[in-house]
Specification:
binds 2-amino-2-deoxy-6-O-phosphono-alpha-D-glucopyranose, Rossmann fold, alpha/beta, 18% strand, seven-stranded parallel β-sheet
């Protein structure tokens, strides 16, 4: 893994976008995108740039089950407001939280990924080492599926909702097997509360107990972190 440490998330977000730009100059057509607070500065850099994304396709990692796209906590809403409304893409894919049939929705999304191989996948990381919503114990070969969220993730995400009971209990998540097929992976993490997960991801054993540790097996991973997230390395 290529680990790059920055003073703050603004500098790191710009550096992440620079890597994406270089990838686009070299022919990348499909970006795998992530939500959460972590990539926000990278999206700001994308929006502030003069780069045209109208020939690009995006495939997002995950969505809450039961969440309407126009709900301001949905990941579709997040992507529209942080990036797509300002920078139109050719096509944007996010799992449909309102799908009536979960099996059909996960099959549909797996076909989306197969039809649009991901050139560069952006990832954040959960405090417990999850990527997407692949919680500890998730199989390394999984494709998109409906997954229960752990209590630690529910607690971490409760800050975005009025009450803890409002946090969805299930999500659709791209699986680790699909993430690992991306040609290049950019994992971003900021703040001291990510330091443990980052240390285990980079220096610990490769184990399903720490889903992000699987990235040690990928040949092109850039880890973009601030000093606080790097403090346990
Ligand atoms: C969420 C998302 C992940 C994200 C992680 C960290 O649960 N499903 O994709 O990377 O948690 O979120 P944040 O960036 O807000 O710390």
């Amino acid at each position: 893994m290529d680990v790059k440490i920055f003073d703050n998330d603004v500098e790191a977000g710009k550096a992440a976008f620079d890597i994406i730009k270089t990838g686009m100059d070299n022919g990348a057509k499909t970006l795998g995108l992530a939500t959460g607070s972590t990539p926000v500065e990278m999206y700001k850099a994308m929006v502030a740039s003069d780069v045209d994304f109208s020939n690009m396709t995006s495939v997002n990692l995950d969505e809450y089950v039961g969440m309407a796209p126009d709900n301001d906590q949905s990941y579709r809403y997040f992507m529209q407001s942080h990036l797509f409304d300002a920078k139109p893409f050719k096509e944007t894919f996010v799992p449909n939280g309102l799908a009536a049939d979960p099996d059909a929705e996960t099959k549909r999304y797996n076909k989306v990924i197969a039809d649009h191989p991901i050139d560069i996948q952006v990832l954040g990381i959960g405090r417990n080492g999850h990527i997407g919503f692949n919680e500890p114990g998730s199989p390394f070969d999984a494709e998109t599926r409906k997954v229960p969220l752990t209590q630690s993730t529910i607690d971490a995400n409760a800050r975005f909702f009025d009450k803890e009971e409002d946090v969805p209990r299930f999500a659709y998540s791209m699986g680790i097997g699909s993430i690992m097929k991306s040609k290049k992976i950019l994992l971003l993490a900021f703040g001291e509360d990510k330091a443990d997960a980052i240390q285990k991801m980079i220096e610990g054993p490769v184990t399903t107990d720490v889903p992000a540790s699987v990235l040690q097996n990928h040949k092109d991973v850039v880890v973009i972190i601030d000093k606080a997230a790097a403090s346990k390395l």
